[in-house]
Amino acid sequence: MSRSVLIVDDDPAYRAAVRALLEADGDYAVTEAASGAAAVAAVARGERPDIVLLDLGLPGENVFAVTRELNVLAADMVLVLCSVREAEEFAARIARSPAAGFLAKDRLSVRALSDLADRGP
């Protein structure tokens, strides 16, 4: 079963690395956005990825507001937050958000992302 993933991160090198990781697995079709605003615009235009991998450190953006906007536009998408920081820094806000969970960027793997996605939105 192929899944579509929208990677939302301001770092093009990170987006490329995650794209390569997921596409090498063969079960993922990947698109990218450099900002939360671009991700929201894409979903508003009708793009409906199965999973959105969203960086908590997007400069100048309230990523928790972005998760709420994405959830309103398409509640069936699985939102996964990621960061170079540990989840404990954001635990309470993550728990209140519509995100399915959190992955530290250095622990991102196909299996970890699939496990979160399998839990559903």
Characterization of this structure:
With 121 residues, this protein is α/β, with parallel strands linked by helices. Helices cover 41% and strands 22% of the residues. The protein contains 5 helices and 5 strands. Strand 1, helix 1 and strand 2 form a beta-alpha-beta unit. The chain is globular and about 35 Å long. The two termini are 18 Å apart.
In short:
This protein is of the alpha/beta class and 121 residues long. The protein has five helices and five strands, in the order βαβαβαβαβα.
Key phrases:
five-stranded parallel beta sheet; 5 strands; 41% helix; globular
* Helix-strand string: EHEHEHEHEH
User: Taking all residues together, what is the mean pLDDT?
Assistant: 89
| Overall morphology | globular
How many DSSP helices?
5
Query: Low-confidence parts, pLDDT < 50 over ≥5 residues?
Result: none
The class by helix and strand makeup works out as alpha/beta
Q: Could you tell me the radius of gyration in angstroms?
A: 13 Å
Q: In percent, how helical is the residue content? A: 40-55%
Beta strand %? 15-25%
Distance between the termini: 18 Å
Strand order of the largest sheet: 2-1-3-4-5
Described by strand count, sense and barrel closure, the largest sheet is:
5 strands, parallel
The count of β-strands is: 5
